[in-house]
Amino acid sequence: MTDVSFSEQLGEWLGAADKFVWGVFFLIPLLLGTGVVLTIRLRGIQFRKLGVALRHGLIDRNDEGGEGDISQYQALTTALAATVGVGNIVGVATAISIGGPGALVWMWVTGLVGMASKYTEAFLGVRFRQRDSKGNISGGPQRYLQHGIKGGFGTFLAWFFTVAAIIASFGIGNLTQGNAVAAGLEDSFGVSPVVTGVVMFILVGAVLLGGIQAIGRVTSAFVPLMIGIYLIGGFVVLFMHLGQIPEALGLIFSDAFSGTAATGGFAGAGIILALQMGVARGIFSNESGMGSAAIAAAAAKTTHPVRQGLVSMTQTFIDTIIVVTMTGLVIVTTGVWKEGSETAGAMTANAFREGIGAEWGGTIVSISVVFFAFSTILGWSYYGERNAERAFGDWASLPYRMIFTCVVFVGATTELDLAWTFSDLANGLMALPNLIGLLILSGLVARETKAYLDFDPTLRAKPDSVEKFLVDTKNPWRSNG
């Protein structure tokens, strides 16, 4: 009885803290405001340079002559692996089932302004990266907050982020994802969670032994496949419901600014709830402003921070504008959003079943959940490891990998009622110091971005030309960190 009471009390405490952190007077305005400020200071870089960024990241793939541990494309897929996860399937369904169809608009807004935030944090991740005692490149908010913002405040922000990131790596990046994989395999194929836990323990451990190079190789092959399978299934559903798409889009936009009336099992929602759920689940999905993707970006082989910043920016576009939109449209066009929040966990699967049949629809979603969640575990293992090294020293790398791998088994075999609340809260605590840092360092980013893009607007400059530019402009950054 005592244990139950403590668990309930803990749930209430976490819920209250999560509600405050993600309230409309705290993190939400800071998140959106930072994105708007950066969009203005960078002159709408996410709109002006999206085509160039997509070409450089997905077609060019490698930045010839750049120093780093992995290619630009591998850095992009590692970050995508970490962000395209359960949030793109269950998180979107949760946002719509509580906030109504209008929540999708606020997820889009979060993604669009978040592209400027993602660019900025990736730029800074590369700009202030360093080599550790093993010769590997390390960067991210835990580095640029301290070295970019001089004095005790910068150090405080860096340590705040470091601690929050380590905690978050076991929440959003491990327990929640492992639980989703086990649940999906058990529901669809009858696989025991213990078996899933053992297999994941072995697979994750095998990949992590190879470090960021192994993670980059796996994600570069894995991520395009998993996103492709999910999008093909979604396109089939939408094709089967072509006539409902215009009405669904009208409902999404109207409800974002007027609220949603109760219908079916849906209890109804006002504008504030749609905004809150859309932004919270949006950042859970694309992680813009959290600073996590900057850690992967810092390891990329690149000749200038602007180049990797633009590549990293496309991650938010792919995650939110493409994958999240697909999930949201499938849910709204098939009408399953009316079932209410009690069915949010199965809502996306129900939508796919409604669109392409029970057998194929459920299987596609189950396989996608497994792929998305497993890839998220790999990406977040690297994020957590880099912050563990920052907190305890380079020796902490191996112990962290061992603990992280064991926790994968725990997540797969344990009921985690508080997992989503815990993950939401940890996300917010990571984002807070990073967003403050992005605002403080925005002037440096804007100046150096303008200077470089005036010199190389299409990102086709050769390494020797970039080096000459750096020398001529007396820029202290060098590609080897």
Query: Helix fraction?
Result: over 70%
- Please identify the oligomeric state: single chain
**How widely separated are the two ends?**
55 Å
Content-based structural category: mainly alpha
Order of strands in the sheet with the most strands? Answer: 1-2
| CATH level-1 class | Mainly Alpha
What is the count of DSSP helices, taking H or I runs of 4+ residues?
Answer: 21
Radius of gyration: 21 Å
The count of domains is 1
| CATH fold label | Amino acid/polyamine transporter I
Overall shape: globular
Largest sheet: 2 strands, antiparallel
Please characterize this protein's 3D structure.
The protein is mostly helical and 481 residues long. The protein has one domain: Amino acid/polyamine transporter I. 76% of the residues lie in helices and 1% in strands. The protein contains 21 helices and two strands. Strands 1-2 form a two-stranded antiparallel ribbon. The longest helix is centred in the middle third of the chain and has 38 residues. The protein is globular, with a radius of gyration of 21 Å. The termini are far apart. The model has no long low-confidence stretch (mean pLDDT 87). InterPro entries: Na/Ala_symport. One of its GO terms (cellular component) is plasma membrane. GO terms for molecular function: amino acid:sodium symporter activity. Keywords: Cell membrane, Membrane, Symport, Transmembrane, Transmembrane helix, Transport. This is Sodium:alanine symporter family protein.
